[in-house]
Design a protein that fits this description.
This protein is mainly beta. It is built from 1 helix and 6 strands, in the order ββββαββ.
Length: 106
């Protein structure tokens, strides 16, 4: 079975929930990341605009919760089902960095 599940994406923090804590006391933060770029495909450039549901736990959750909406980020994590029996995906953010010199929407 293939084992690599790693995603890095540049995005802006589009929607944010309140920082919450799981019953086990772990910080949790849910958000929506907005991505816009041009990607090479079949000899041309494809315009990509999408929103990705994301969640972070622990220290990354606490740090993300402090950021304002519209902040440009580079997020790294893995994809998992959003709900146990569903087919939609959720990005679990393990680490991120702010991209201070990137305009909003990129």
């Amino acid at each position: 079975m293939p084992a690599v599940n790693r995603l890095t994406i540049d995005a802006t923090l589009a929607e944010c929930s309140e920082l919450r804590y799981t019953p086990a006391g772990i910080a949790a933060f849910e958000c929506v990341l907005k991505h816009a770029s041009a990607q090479p495909e079949a000899g041309g450039n494809r315009r990509v605009d999408c929103e990705i549901a994301a969640v972070a736990f622990g220290e990354p959750a606490i740090a993300l919760a402090r950021l304002p909406r519209g902040k440009a980020l580079r997020c790294t994590g893995f994809l998992a089902r959003r709900y146990r029996t569903g087919i939609t995906l959720l990005l679990h953010v393990n680490e991120f960095e702010t991209l201070d010199n990137v305009s909003e929407g990129n």
